[in-house]
């Protein structure tokens, strides 16, 4: 960022030098337009001229604002924008969105560079708002919006004082429409837009804003693969490092946490230890929006043998929330029902498995099942019999003990007798789960997570929390209580959520990890990329339903924290946890589009929580990026409502992390605290390798330094099942049998294991004047007051050794034996593991940081 400031100073200096030689004009003509390229998705462009002959394209075709309407990919179009300077002295842009909806887009700006939130007023039903125009009547202080409606083949108009509320739509005389846009020949290509006479200063700022963007993009896209050229003359780097041990500040105890979202099969088929896939026969083609013919209520099941048939029934189910069950009709013995699990069931010799099923006899004399686990050769490796069914649903349970191994095992259920029998909630769990919990979590995966020492767990999303439509929002009440009473639903990542891993299990997991629970609830609006509902635009829970919605959120707090005699506390106690879970944090919203629809709903929720549970720390949301409209508008709401903490998200290139180490040093200490809820370094191809991990390590050193304002951080996403991944990179990959932590995981774990209570002031003086060199070395020092440990973290992201001379004057009171942990390899390495050794304090005098390395020294007070 320092470099970017330097660049700005350079631009200003160049400009004043320039204005000394040539006289700049007082004003120029600005042309604002959008092209039809990329299906109209390239947003707003500017060009300028002084003589109306030579046009200068800014960028060329730099996008100053893009449309946010609808889903990514298909929509987000800006058609025929029109700009005016409004009665409020701000710039207003309106544009057409598509060829069918009766809505248009509106946004405003003070400087034509930064654009505030967009709104999409609906003025027509059943017809399209085509090529809207805007004018302002300075006498009545109102705007007149006019447009053409293709179906009625007429222009219409509506007036508005604030561009939020609109008056009655009236037909317009055709002579009063269609005059605002002009055609300009932009050096051989004709474009349509609006012309504005503006002060030269306006043009100058626009041009410089674009140049700054271009410069930043160059820096942020630097990759290690070009380091040999970039640093061809660099042989080594020398630096002096000193620690001012007595200069400390308290930092957050919750800096290192995790974000668990059911993406990439993280829950069902992943952390949730259930081995039967589609146990409740609730899979539905809509889970995948009809894209997979085999994805239905029989998914992962099959029949074997003759004389057996099935149907999926809904009459008199076990529970209305899980309405499907399977009815088997058996005409000859020997036929069986098989479940293949999630791409096979892993069975381990000697291990015990809890099998359970809801069953009822419909007709005939079926009065038992043989329940077996088969290995991949069809050999039975566990067997038991379930007996005596009656005409009402009954839950039957038994324990299977495996006498063989299978990587791709099968569950087989063979009815005994002939007739018709119904089954539901067919379940198989290893008894060995994390902390031996029933309905528990996969031990190896949970232990890998626990090894990170997460101080908090954010759940259940992410996008899963707010869903991709109002009816897809995660409803915590559907996820508690007996499994057969929970309400499964579509997972917007393109599969199914059994919600067997629900709110109770999340809270229990947090407790087992010794981590703070941090649930995230939708702010009454679904995902930015919603495809369900609202003509493709962001919709919100209707205002008349918000009271109920807010009550659900207040009920969640009672469920977590209420006494066991409260209505919801009693349900928690009945599930097995009479003591409160001590919920302190609650996220409202997830990187939402910050619109009027959002703000209205967020404010209602925020005020209600504050009134009833002032002790809860509500975490607001600042959009999906580290800058831009949602970020600024989100933080503006934080200021307005005095929100205690804000959730920020950004997935950035390694270069961004290298050159933005002072991102939080610039934050106002009197404003909301920060929860960096989602971040990761992304390279083309999306690997998780040493290059991305070191960029994240650089950022983590800066986060520790800013641990007074940054309260919490979590990498995203956490888990990914091989072959079932929607998002890369992730922190921990796994299959049914193995857990494969990444290099990024090692960095998170090292920072988790080596956290401190205080940040210790330290100075590194690198003997180089090249900011590309100095930006690639980062340090942080923390002190853990309870453990009396001083921890130095040093990142060298250069292709050469960094020779550091540490001033050990303040370190004489520490034990001479220091624990050293080093992570280093080639930047493309995906397999490097940290190496631990014990070194002598003296080695700090002539410290060598390996190329592409993270090195940690742990000193213990004598
Ligand atoms: O971490 C994956 C996704 O990234 C989250 O669901 C969402 O919040 C973000 O866009």
Residues in β-strands, percent: 25-35%
Listed once per kind, the bound small molecules are: alpha-L-arabinofuranose
CATH topology of the largest domain: TIM Barrel
Give the overall form.
globular
Distance between the termini: 40 Å
Total separate domains = 4
CATH architecture of the largest domain: Alpha-Beta Barrel
| Number of DSSP-assigned strands | 45
Strand order of the largest sheet: 43-42-45-40-39-38-13-41-44
Helical proportion, percent range: 10-25%
Structural class: alpha+beta
Poorly predicted runs of 5 or more residues: none
Arithmetic mean of pLDDT: 95
Walk me through this protein's architecture.
- The chain is of the alpha+beta class and 862 residues long.
- The chain has four domains: 27-206, Tachylectin-2, Chain A (5 Propeller); 234-251 and 758-860, Immunoglobulin-like; 285-432, Sandwich (Jelly Rolls), CATH 2.60.120.260; 435-741, Alpha-Beta Barrel (TIM Barrel).
- It contains 15 helices and 45 strands.
- Strands 43-42-45-40-39-38-13-41-44 form a nine-stranded mixed β-sheet, with helices on one face.
- A hairpin with a 6-residue loop joins strand 2 (45-49) and strand 3.
- Helix 1 runs antiparallel to helix 3 (200-220).
- The chain is globular and about 95 Å long.
- The model has no long low-confidence stretch (mean pLDDT 95).
- Alpha-L-arabinofuranose binds next to loops.
- Alpha-L-arabinofuranose (AHR) is lined by residues 261, 263, 461-463, 590-591, 624, 678, 716-717, 727.
Short description:
The chain folds into four domains: 27-206, 5 Propeller (Tachylectin-2, Chain A), CATH 2.115.10; 234-251 and 758-860, Immunoglobulin-like (Sandwich); 285-432, Galactose-binding domain-like (Jelly Rolls, Sandwich), CATH 2.60.120.260; 435-741, Glycosidases (TIM Barrel), CATH 3.20.20.80. It is an alpha+beta fold and 862 residues long. The protein is built from 15 helices and 45 strands.
